[in-house]
Amino acid sequence: MSGWWREAALYQIYPRSFQDTDGNGIGDLEGICRRLDHIADLGVGAVWLSPIFRSPMADFGYDVSDYRDIDPVFGDMAAFDRLLEETHARGLKLLLDFVPNHSSDQHPWFQESRSSRDNPKRDWYIWHDPAPDGGPPNNWMSNFGGSAWEWDEHTDQYYYHAFLAEQPDLNWRNPDVRAAMRDVLRFWLDKGVDGFRVDVIWHLIKDAEFRDNPLNPHYDASHPDIDRYLQVYSADQPEVHDVIAELRAVIDSYDDRLLIGEIYLPIERLMTYYGRDNSGVHLPFNFQLIQCAWNADAIGSLIHEYESALPEGGWPNWVLSNHDQPRIAARVGEAQARVAAMLLLTLRGTPTLYYGDEIGIADVDMTEEEVLDPAAINEPGVSFNRDRSRTPMQWSDKPVAGFSDGKPWLPLTQDWRERNAAVQRQDPASLLNLHRALLHIRSIEPDLLSGAYRRIDMDEDVLAYERGASIAVILNLSSEPVELSLPDKWKAARVLLSVRSAQALNEVPANLAGAEGVILKIKDAE
Ligand code: GLC
User: Is the pTM of this model over 0.90?
Assistant: First the structure.
């Protein structure tokens, strides 16, 4: 089996929040360059950057106005070239965030498209006449609240935007759009980037007839608008797989590149994104752990369901948090965030770490007035405020946690003086050192990379599994100690690592303290 990405752990950087070098309080490419040693030292294999392209920043870079240029807030193309070189020099791969579903409304393509009904680029976006009552063409809702249709007075039609009105959806049924976007991929691949995470890939194709979505019987006012209807016609259409296969063909025309799709769908639908004969994305992002209740039973069932649903040749992957979701430490607390790290890095498949999770950044205090996330501004109190998961990386106890010389664009978390990378590097039992140890063990134990996953039944608070013949993992998902009744071959095992100490242990414990976990190396397999 080929593919570096089966072995590498991925590390997501939200560039605005990693390291600022020009004092404007916003991270930049030069800053990422300066911090590459932190990433290499952690032991991951690849870095994925959230969008760095030219953008009016209505959605902080997920609204691209030039797919082939770097936004000045992050630097310029020379800074990018240097970052790519420095990343590769450390043996790391670099992945970009490709945002093909929509552009910015400031993109020249959209400017042309909206200029007149007969402009050659009119059909590059999705334009429709009003419904007979003069209202929006159908009931599709924006993911960021309200109708997904925006009225354009100049040409007397509506355009479709699955996100902000400043993010009009491109028409992927138009072959010229597809060709232009394939060229964008080639532009970056020719530069040497190692692949892409593709934003909202399941959205690319919409129902050809634009039929109304059915009502969601479970909707109530505590949910965002998007949940009013089931997304039956507005996304996840069968033809999307042809588009993805075309993108994949571009990727495959280069050596060893990776295509990841951002997909929020139930497991059964998610699996279709591996594509027929694996012609889809290499990795359809698996967000199941983010949505799962934090107990052994729920997590165990979900791993089973996911593993059993994988198509032949489909490689698994796992994600715990990202820039759109609550951070793992905010969700399950610090002690269980340590257990979560052992889980993430011992499951079968490619893990993705989110910057800051390696030091356990949790929640931030913010007032309503401070909120910048457009989703949370549009639907306050209903939509998760994503700013909470995008606060600056905490490097040291120097001013602004070593992130910037200026005022950071988002606040630091309260505990930054104690919770930062410099402090944790000195503490052998820190979460940072736990991550380093986990990634190291993962890299030297072949069964952790590719050994089959098999769950072993234990106490109801314990999640235990074998990986191949040589590794066992036991995790206590509760805060209370549990007594273990272990198979004999596990009792005689070596303890490679404990969650609580971030060290090896001398013997296999008979009881597992609350939020403790261990990796065992089974002796007769040595
Ligand atoms: C994806 C991104 C999110 C963005 C949205 C629109 O879900 O992860 O941050 O707001 O797409 O591009």
Answer: yes
